[in-house]
Amino acid sequence: MKMKMVEVFYRPFPTVFIPKPTKPRVFFLDVNPLCFRGSQRNLGAFARWLALFFAHVSLRDPVVAYKAHRARGVGTGADTRVVNVLCKCNVPVVRVHGYEADDVVATLTEQVLQKGYRVVIASPDKEFKQLISDDVQLVMPIPKIGRWSFYTLRHYVAQYKCDPTADLSLRCFMGDEADGVPGIQHLVLGFGRKTALKLLLKRDVNVQFDDSWLSTRNTSNDTYVLADFILKLNGEGRS
User: Fold this and answer.
1) Which pLDDT score, from 0 to 100, does residue 77 have?
2) 32 with 69: CB under 8 angstroms?
3) Chosen CATH of 25-160 out of 2.60.40.10, 3.40.50.1010, 3.40.50.300, 3.40.50.1980
4) Domain residue limits, the chain
5) Rg (Cα) of the chain, in Å, rounded?
6) Residue 94 — pLDDT band, cuts 50, 70, 90?
7) How confident is the model at residue 233 (pLDDT cuts 50, 70, 90)?
8) Any idea which of 22-36, 67-81, 87-101, 165-179 has the lowest mean pLDDT?
9) Which H or E element spans position 230?
10) Residue 218 — φ and ψ, nearest 5°?
11) What's the CA gap between 63 and 103, in Å, rounded?
12) Which residue range or ranges hold the 5'-3' exonuclease domain (predicted)?
């Protein structure tokens, strides 16, 4: 019996990568801060940032974007022009009188997440950072380089060394200069963000409110007690 040598070429089937189904995105754009430079309206900047947002952030995503902005300046010609621009772009404008944009967007974000969407919030307002999660990210305008930049859960943890759920607690310690709310650092020398983070990481701050705390207290010893507390946190407690 004769045998023939047969060359067999094995060609593996190409690997097919099936992408995981991605959740659709809803964009919330906090319009009002983009319309102002200080206390003065700057509609030119608004138009520029809006154009950049549409071109480079939303990437013509078919999911409708919600837009919410504060009621400051309602009824002025400038405000009407802003609304008209958004309407002409087929963008629904959500505005609730008596509430600020962060309140409106936070409420809508919760509802949208329950429907299985991801959320992108476009705003320079730092208060939105407390909403960041795996399904919620921010995109903020950076004037120095003239573009929008994404800010995600990974960025937040790298910057603050904690979870966004602690953002509100941090603000209780540090205050909010943008809203004129002073922080404890104005009372205690050396108390900064790092010390506040130490406190949050070392202590359970989830306590229940006690009505007795509403009574007037003696504040004359505050400076000494708080300064001593900071020293103890740093392992340098007084004897």
Assistant:
1) 52
2) yes
3) 3.40.50.1010
4) 25-160, 163-208+219-239
5) 26
6) confident
7) low
8) 67-81
9) helix 222-233
10) -85, 120
11) 22
12) 22-217
pTM of the complete model? 0.61
Token reading at 46? 């608004």
What phi and psi, each to the nearest 5 degrees, are found at residue 55?
-80, -40
- Cα atoms in the Cβ-side hemisphere of radius 13 Å centred on 200: 21
- Tokens encoding 182: 């002073």
Find tokens 């800010």 and name the residue: 151
Write the DSSP assignment of 137-177 as a string of letters: EEEEEETTTTEEEEE-HHHHHHHHSS-GGGHHHHHHHH-BG
* CB atoms near residue 218 (< 10 Å): 6
Mention every residue, 6+ apart, whose C-beta is less than 8 A from residue 72. 32
Residues 164, 165, 166, 168, Cα dihedral to 10°: 100
